[in-house]
Amino acid sequence: MKTGKKIWLCIAGILLIALGVYFIINxxxxxxxxxxxxxxxxxxxxxxxxxxxxxxxxxxxNSGTRLLMSLFDIFFGCFFLFHLLGTAASLPFxxxxxxxxxxxxxxxxSFDYKKVAxxxxxxxxxxxxxxxxxGILGFRNMDVTAVTLSTLLSISVILFGVSHILAVAGxxxxxNAVKDQIQAMNG
Length: 187
What we know:
Mean pLDDT: 88
Largest sheet: none
Shape: extended
Helix content: over 70%
Order of helices and strands: HHHHHH
Low-confidence stretches: none
Strand content: under 5%
Radius of gyration: 22 Å
Structural class: mainly alpha
Oligomer: single chain
Distance between the termini: 24 Å
């Protein structure tokens, strides 16, 4: 990897770490940023699922559930994007609803997997039930849910920054090992 790319990766890593620290200090900014990112990701996911559903409805069971879930994702994605401040304020509530709906979807999907004799369908069932329970628990104390979401997102941004820097270190180490091997073969 060229030195310039390594420098840019390191700069990106340092900026991500700084952003993560800033997010920890300013949790409200974190939730607005999360609303924006979640809006884009959820909208893209919903559109992708919708396309997948239409392409596979002839041979995949329960395409109605997948269609409904893709429409939910599209709705939530648009909602997040068009109401950033409102979403940031209501993100814990919206997140709890989203987790419950996703949990129910996973429960329904687990029974589809059971119909086709997938041996671990019960794992999906348990994950779906856990999702529904976590969503319900999220309603109990919205302030704790907001602080938890903000902190986890901030830590994630910091970890992404650290991973950039570690990637540069790993690539450099790999390049040095390759150079050593070439020198050993030639020398």
